[in-house]
Write a structure and sequence with these properties.
The complex is a heterodimer. Helix content of chain A is 30%, strand content 28%. Chain A contains 4 helices and 8 strands; from the N terminus they run βαββββαβαββα. In chain A, helix 2 crosses helix 3 and helix 2 runs antiparallel to helix 4. Chain A starts with 8 loop residues before the first strand and ends with a helix. In chain B, the strands form 6 sheets. In chain B, strands 1-6-9-8-17 form a 5-stranded antiparallel β-sheet. Chain B has 5 domains: 130 residues, no CATH class; 159 residues, Sulfite Reductase Hemoprotein, domain 1, CATH 3.30.413; 78 residues, 2-Layer Sandwich (Alpha-Beta Plaits); 157 residues, Sulfite Reductase Hemoprotein, domain 1 (2-Layer Sandwich), CATH 3.30.413; 121 residues, Nucleotidyltransferases  domain 2 (Four Helix Bundle (Hemerythrin (Met), subunit A), Up-down Bundle). The two termini of chain B are 38 Å apart. Classes of the chains: A alpha+beta, B alpha+beta. Chains A and B meet through helix 1, strand 2 and strand 4 of A and helix 4, strand 17, helix 13 and helix 15 of B.
């Protein structure tokens, strides 16, 4: 077994009132992001999977990472999928992905063409490690990384309570869903991250 | 890209078939050599294509963003082919012979789609899977994980024998003559990496059908089409194949020609091998647009082609593999998991609709084949896992992909149909309307293909949405129409064999480029794609849904009893079709309507700036080029072994490198050369040393003596010094082989 480490971190911020979100208008928005190359990553293309139920939705494909509004497991959320390696500690990898997802979500929340319909629900976040060799979905990974997660969320939520539930289906990526007791805005979480 | 890339080789050691593991190690070394500038771009491109590692749109480093062409600032300036940036995401094609899969393989594909792609696996019109947006650095790990599930990507692209397709209902179809599955698998295994199939000017696609009347195998549009037939010999039933050659779609479609009305199983593999030899020897190499075997057959005529193949067949050295599979093929069978049952009579409307369009009875009473209709051929990682569970729960994992980009499950006890439907529904896999007008086939088009002109997937998604609303209001004849869409004239969406076919073209309107589709009507899907459709006119992409509406309505209202769409189109004629559709070919009446200047699903102003150079044709690289590149790779590996203190391995690899280079040269004159080192050195001495062809203008026969000396001491162990000397000599010998080959002028047909 390879040495376990947190790389290829995925963060998904679940959105409020998902039934009201139309993914169609996201396509021109993501194209405009490519036009402006407005994110830190090199943005390449837009993939439209709206025709697939409970699928990746609309994906903004980048070199270092993909952004998407993803409906996997019928949980609609703004997802950041880190593809290239992030140098540094596990905390660095978590912080990088969380920050990127929050910035993307914030941009979408304020995007005029989306009419404010896409908003973080303030409480639910999903994390996945998109590499089964570095982080297999087994007890060992949970034991290895749990303290990393605790440290990270202690800072992110400023001590607010949260519940964390690991993905039980062993064939799926190692990951968990998390729900906070209080509601956070994306700006609050970004501020906490940067503090 | 993945942090784990360096770890999978060790992780999966011993879990992959040796041959596949070795091939992937070689490919990884070739990647290393390319990064070091030691493998030239053209050769590397064909090497990766033959591993199924394909380019994708925008990989030339440019993309039209709707306003201007944007240079994509990829981190590396390295290329993986002509104008193909290393870091640009690409497509990985995965071969699935005869479309056959088991549950574990589905789970593996799910993992790979998540970890290396964008969470989607795509079923192609040739029963392959494709993953998009894959980084080339990830491909060795991806291939190793496939190999551990007994799947290869070898020769999935490039100028090689592509996936061997077969009717997905083989073995269970009531109309078949016999089950072609084991024959398709045997041919696939036999031709994979076969030395006689390494030197084609273009790709070569085989296909098997269990009968002549249905479409499932599409034998008429393949380079090699095989249809199950039976004859009698001494009053005994004997099975065999009608063998067709030279079919193909592409810009100008060709119907395959009958090569032999009855090929017995024991002649199937040698005849295919002989055809491969003739194609390699006489097929066009320089002009890519005339390099498919269909052009060779057209130029020679089927009689002369047949004569050449049969002569070649006589000269083939016997190979036990030709016949050793036949006995087991005859005994091949699949078993059900559950006892036979009865079809349910009751159920919801949704269930009844699904039952009507997505199930068909097997020839084995009490069992059904069910079709999972995949929208645009796409399936998510979660759905793949759910399907694996369903396959384990209801069948003995008897899963096949289809050429209509769907997946079928065979051997479903009819008692289980309702329960199975519920399980599929929970996974979002119970769409009704399989193989109806709703089940639209499409190539990737401008979404990811470098050659795409119009958005075939965008159009398919739009049509699917509109037709879904009224599909079940149509009568059966309309429901059974087939729509197929290609993003360009190259026919990957098989538009020629659809009732309503479309392929992407571009036209100018008001001084601007406008995405269009050429409307192709009246192709025949049944009888193994027996006839091709007729282009009618080009219409802006945004008007195509209206084209479909008008044609469908006209057919529904005007067809005579039982008249097929093809016959209807022929009867009403081009003049009426023109008057029916011509207003749609014009610009919109409202000059402020800019919608036609964009394509379906893509808000950017339409542009042809993103068109690239296709890689379907691959690079024409001769077998000798590959052998010499292989020899260089062996020398490189020898150096690595020497650096790691493995002197004996290093010496052995250096000697192997010389043998590989020598064998490559010998094959120019003697294609049947074996792998035996004594024979290689003997033939090399006779043909290249004694004749002085190998002699260097300055050094004479010096480098050949390195080989002869290495052979003499090949049984002795190597010291660090002897291995070091031998590596240097191998370098020089391989260089001399390159020079020799260049002096010989790289003859075409080798």
């Amino acid at each position: 077994m390879a040495v376990m480490q947190l790389q290829h971190v995925n963060v998904k911020l679940l959105v409020k009132n998902p039934e009201e979100v139309d993914l169609g208008p996201l396509i021109p928005v993501f194209h405009s992001w490519i036009q402006g190359q407005i994110m830190e990553e090199l943005l390449l293309d837009v993939a439209d999977y709206r025709h697939v139920p409970a699928g990746p939705g609309v994906v903004l494909v980048g070199h270092q990472a993909n952004y998407s509004v993803d409906n996997t497991d019928e949980h609609l959320g703004v997802r950041y999928n880190r593809k290239t390696v992030v140098n540094g500690s596990n905390q660095d990898a978590l912080r990088q992905a969380m920050r990127a997802s929050l910035i993307a979500c914030q941009r979408l929340e304020s995007e005029p063409s989306l009419e404010g319909k896409l908003r973080f629900n303030g409480q639910e976040v999903e994390f996945f490690i998109n590499d089964r060799l570095l982080a297999p979905n087994r007890d060992a990974a949970r034991e290895t990384f749990h303290s990393d997660f605790e440290t990270f969320f202690e800072k992110l939520f400023r001590g607010s309570e949260y519940s964390l539930s690991y993905t039980s289906e062993l064939r799926k990526l190692f990951g968990f869903s998390l729900k906070t007791s209080r509601v956070f805005a994306t700006a609050d979480l970004l501020a906490n991250l940067n503090a | 890209m993945k942090a784990s890339n360096s770890l999978w080789q060790k992780e999966l050691a011993g879990k992959m078939p040796d041959a596949l593991a070795r091939e992937i190690d070689i490919f990884e070394t070739e990647i290393t050599l390319r990064k070091q500038g030691k493998l030239e771009e053209r050769l590397f491109a064909e090497t990766r294509l033959r591993k199924g590692v394909y380019g994708q749109r925008y990989d030339n480093g440019q993309r039209h963003d709707g306003r201007k062409v944007q240079e994509m600032a990829y981190p590396s300036e390295l290329t993986k082919g002509l104008n193909t940036m290393w870091d640009a995401p690409g497509m990985q094609r995965i071969k699935i012979p005869a479309g056959g899969l088991n549950a574990h393989q589905l789970e593996t594909l799910a993992e790979l789609a998540e970890e290396y792609s964008d969470g989607i696996a795509h079923v192609t019109t040739r029963q392959d899977f494709q993953l998009h947006y894959v980084h080339i650095d990830d491909t060795p790990s991806l291939m190793r994980r496939l190999a551990a599930a007994n799947i290869t990507t070898r020769e999935a692209c490039g100028n090689s024998v592509r996936n061997v397709t077969a009717c997905p209902y083989a073995g269970v179809c009531p109309d078949e003559v016999f089950d072609v599955t084991p024959f398709a698998r045997a041919l696939s295994k036999f031709l994979l990496g076969h030395p006689d199939c390494q030197n084609f000017g273009r790709k070569f696609k085989p296909s098997f059908s269990g009968c002549g009347q249905h479409a499932c195998g599409l034998a008429s549009m393949h380079d090699l089409g095989l249809i199950a037939v039976q004859g009698t010999e001494n009053r005994e039933r004997k099975i065999g194949f009608e063998m067709y050659v030279g079919g193909g779609l592409g810009a100008v479609p060709y119907q395959a020609k009958l090569f032999d009305p009855f090929v017995p199983p024991e002649e199937l593999l040698p005849l295919a091998q002989a055809i491969g030899r003739v194609f390699a020897k006489y097929g066009e190499k320089k002009n890519r647009s005339r390099a498919r075997i269909k052009f060779l057959i057209q130029d020679l005529g089927i009689e002369k082609f047949r004569k050449l193949v049969l002569e070649e067949r006589k000269n083939l050295p016997p190979d036990p593999r030709w016949t050793e599979y036949v006995e087991s093929a005859a005994a091949f069978t699949e078993a059900p998991l559950k006892p036979a049952g009865n079809k349910p009579l009751l159920g919801s409307t949704d269930f009844q609709r699904w039952l009507e369009t997505n199930t068909r009875p097997q020839k084995q009473e009490g069992y059904s084949v069910i079709t999972i209709a995949l929208p645009l051929g796409d399936i998510t990682a979660n759905q793949l896992r759910a399907l694996a569970d369903v396959a384990r729960r209801f069948t003995n994992e008897t899963i096949r992909t289809t050429v209509e980009q769907n997946i079928v499950l065979r051997w479903i006890s009819q008692n289980d149909l309702a329960e199975l439907w519920r399980a599929l529904q929970a996974a979002g896999l119970a769409y009704p309307g399989a193989e109806t007008i709703l089940d639209i086939v499409t190539c990737p088009g401008t979404d990811t293909c470098k050659l795409g002109i119009s958005s075939s997937r965008g159009l398919a998604a739009e049509l699917r949405k509109r037709l879904a609303e009224k599909n079940f209001q149509f009568d059966e004849a309309v429901q059974n129409l087939h729509i197929k869409i290609s993003g360009c004239f190259n026919s990957c969406g098989q538009h020629h064999v659809a009732d309503l076919g479309f392929y992407g073209v571009s036209r100018k309107m008001a001084g601007y480029a406008v995405p269009h589709f050429q409307v192709v009507l009246g192709g025949e899907w049944t009888h193994n794609a027996a006839s091709y459709g007729m282009p009618v006119m080009a219409v802006p992409s945004k008007h195509i849904p209206e084209v479909v509406t008008r044609l469908v309505d006209r057919y529904a209202a005007g067809r005579k009893n039982g008249e097929a769409f093809k016959d209807f189109i022929k009867r009403i004629g081009k003049a009426e079709l023109k008057s029916l559709l011509e207003d749609l070919a014009r610009s919109p009446a409202d000059p402020t309507d800019r919608s036609i200047f964009t394509d379906w699903g893509d808000p950017r102003e339409y542009s042809l700036e993103d068109l690239g150079v296709g890689e379907c044709a691959g690079e024409v690289v001769s077998a000798v080029d590959f052998d010499l590149a292989g020899a260089e790779r062996e020398v490189f590996e020898a150096q690595v072994a020497w650096d790691n203190g493995q002197a004996d391995t290093a010496g052995r690899l250096a000697y192997q490198a010389m043998l590989l280079a020598a064998r490559g040269l010998v094959k120019l004159e003697y294609p049947n050369i074996s792998q035996d080192s004594d024979q290689i050195v003997g033939e090399f001495r006779t043909r290249f040393y004694d004749t002085q062809k190998f002699f260097d203008p300055f050094a004479g026969g010096k480098f050949a003596h390195y080989l002869f000396a290495a052979q003499q001491r090949s049984q002795r162990p190597h010291t660090a010094d002897s291995a070091r000397y031998l590596i240097d000599e191998a370098h020089l010998f391989v260089e001399a082989a390159h020079s020799c080959y260049q002096r010989m002028g790289k003859p075409v047909g080798v």
